Amino acid sequence: MEIKRTISNKIIFVLLAVILATFIMGWILPVGIDKVSSLTYREYLFSTYTVFTQFGFLMFAFLVAFFINKEYSGKTILFYRMMNDTSLTFYSKKVLTLIIETVGIIFSTLLIISALFKDFSVFFQMFFLFSMVAIQYIVIVALISLLMTNILLSIGFSLLYWILTVVFVSFGGALRLFAIFDASNELYGKVGDFLESSSVFLGTEDNLMVFIYILVIAIISMIIAKLNNQRWLELGTR
């Protein structure tokens, strides 16, 4: 049902446009701005990874917030309640739908790009990283949007969260874990070094850290979503 909703309200097409724009910007930045004459497969993927990690919140915020907040404006929450949904199941369905569509689009786009470059050496590793970065945005923005009915507030607080995490990273220490994908964090440098080498996979500990980071964010978000069931009902019936 949720996938049908993304088609009917054209969310999936906007999502496709956002992801394609990200991959296109990954090409434009080095070629159009830095005037790189010849871009290799790995250089292009690192440029695209940079776009994903540095501009992703801006590009995903409106899309995710609209998908969630649209249900409040039409008081569709009452329908979900009649279907025995709770704030947790509502949140989970929305997030899972966006994740499935996002991962599918990333996989297809990266597959085509790898075929064009005739190089699949780091396909699976970069698919994992691109997907994890996107999932992070979806999980966080969806949670913020769940707690608010106004799309502008949802976007505003999402961007505020993004800015605060960047500030936290600058302090170093354990605070760096608030935004492991940020360019000032060590993971970004490791991805760059990995793509400059002949390796086909990032270090096991780094991949594990990324997976655990996303898992922790998802668990915390689901707990918060569950605890705000009453607020979800109140916002949905105003």
TrEMBL record:
Key words of the record: Membrane, Transmembrane, Transmembrane helix
Keyword DNA-binding (UniProt): no
Entry's transmembrane regions: 12-33, 45-68, 95-117, 123-147, 159-181, 208-228
Keyword Membrane: yes
Recorded superkingdom: Bacteria
Protein's name according to its UniProt entry: Antibiotic transport system permease
